[in-house]
Amino acid sequence: MAQQVRGVVARSKGAPVTIETIVIPDPGPGEAVVQVQACGVCHTDLHYREGGINDEFPFLLGHEAAGVVESVGTGVTNVQPGDFVILNWRAVCGTCRSCLKGKPHLCFSTFNATQKMTLTDGTVLSPALGIGAFVEKTLVAAGQCTKVDPNVPAATAGLLGCGVMAGIGAAINTGNVGRGDSVAVFGCGGVGDAAIAGALLAGATTIVAVDIDDRKLEWAKGFGATHTCNSAKVDPVEFIRSVTGGNGADVCIDAIGHPTVYKQAFEARDLAGTVVLVGVPRPDMTLELPFIEVFGRGGSLKSSWYGDCLPSRDFPMLVQLHQQGRLPLDKFVSETISLDAVEEAFHKMERGEVLRSVVVL
Ligand SMILES: NC(=O)c1ccc[n+]([C@@H]2O[C@H](COP(=O)([O-])OP(=O)(O)OC[C@H]3O[C@@H](n4cnc5c(N)ncnc54)[C@H](O)[C@@H]3O)[C@@H](O)[C@H]2O)c1
Ligand SMILES: [Zn+2]
Ligand SMILES: [Zn+2]
Q1: Residue 21 CA to ligand 3 centre (angstroms)
Q2: 19-29, pLDDT tens digit by residue?
Q3: Atom of ligand 1 nearest to the CA of 194
Q4: Where do the H-state alpha helices sit in the chain?
Q5: Domain assignments of the chain as residue spans, ordered by start
Q6: What is the pLDDT at residue 326?
Q7: Which CATH class is domain 3-161+328-360?
Q8: pLDDT tens digit string along 166-190?
């Protein structure tokens, strides 16, 4: 029987989020109902609330989550009730042209639950990134559940469901950072600091953190930044060149998604280096670059969907690295909050007071 639970909804563009009663159907074929234990507040949730992703209001927000599978529909074999899982928003189809070419991490046909979660009056909700996890229970496709070791607290494990995975993956998967590389990360929120942690894991020796907030730069050092640059005060391109022998960094990661910042990343990159865009631009933004420089500087300009991760490969591996003390996932959790505090958490994010507020249920 359908269940009624509490969840956080963005009803219209820019309006403060509200707590609503959400109707969760029983899982149909290939679906699972998950009892959400923790869900981080990611900047993408704020993008949704501001109408920056699409206009399909009302949204059931939250998508960076871990919890326990409560029930599964017919045909589900990858998880069973009681499993501790991290939710992912790119469930791999296995049959699209990318999957068939052996690149499931780039799957072009990722999928979500078929049934809809609704308000009590029947209004269909759009779940953020096909998850919707600022809610006591959520309905997902079973492929969106990745089983991991239950000995990691949900507030920590859940972060791998979005921002931390996106950041680490931007460095190690998309940017292909290697031993001895120099890396510059623009924007040191949850995603950027994760990119810094990823660069450290991969063996980068120079890691430059760039932000406009000194507090964020201080935190970035705790994840492995060897140099910091406040780009509101100092030209980041010159700074990055100055700490890389005048050359620029091998890999520059834009973890904001702003054309000005992207251009800085483009210019702060060494010849034949890589720019990775992991921040999400607004739909109205455009980018202008000197075309001859795009050619002349060589290398590659890449975008990182979800850190080009493969959840089944990367989530358990990163959980293990965390358990071995090699990845300080817990340091991303600035505070744990209740469902009612999501709106305030957005403001704290905007004021730069937190890396991650994590809703614990
Ligand atoms: N590609 C993906 O799969 C993926 C996944 C998760 C999040 N994201 C995106 O990544 C971005 C970052 O998310 P977050 O949760 O870390 O956000 P956040 O708000 O926590 O962090 C953003 C950081 O950028 C800094 N900043 C803002 N403007 C700046 C500027 N002009 N120059 C330098 N620094 C600046 C802020 O001070 C802050 O520290 C967002 O766009 C989010 O939507 C992408
Ligand atoms: Zn596919
Ligand atoms: Zn996110």
Answers
A1: 23
A2: 999 999 999 99
A3: 16
A4: 43-49, 97-100, 154-157, 163-169, 190-202, 214-221, 236-242, 259-267, 291-296, 311-323, 342-350
A5: 3-161+328-360, 167-304
A6: 96
A7: alpha beta
A8: 999 999 999 999 999 999 999 999 9
Distance (angstroms) between ligand 2 centre and the Cα of 103 equals 8
What is residue 52's DSSP assignment? S
Q: Which ligand is nearest to the CA of 110?
A: 2
Pocket of ligand 1, beta carbon within 6 A: 42-44, 47, 162-163, 166, 186-192, 210-213, 216, 231, 255-258, 261, 278-280, 304-306, 349, 352
In CATH terms, the fold of domain 167-304 is: Rossmann fold (3.40.50)
Which ligand has the minimum distance to the alpha carbon of residue 105?
2
Pocket-testing residue among 64, 256, 355, ligand 1, by greatest number of atoms within 8 A of Cβ: 256
Best of 53, 191, 252, 285 for a ligand 1 pocket test (most atoms within 8 Å of beta carbon): 191
The pTM for the full model equals 0.96
Instruction: Return the SS3 of 142.
Output: helix
Structure tokens at 302: 């890449």
Residue 245: how many other CB atoms lie within 10 Å: 10
Segment (H or E) for 32: strand 31-40
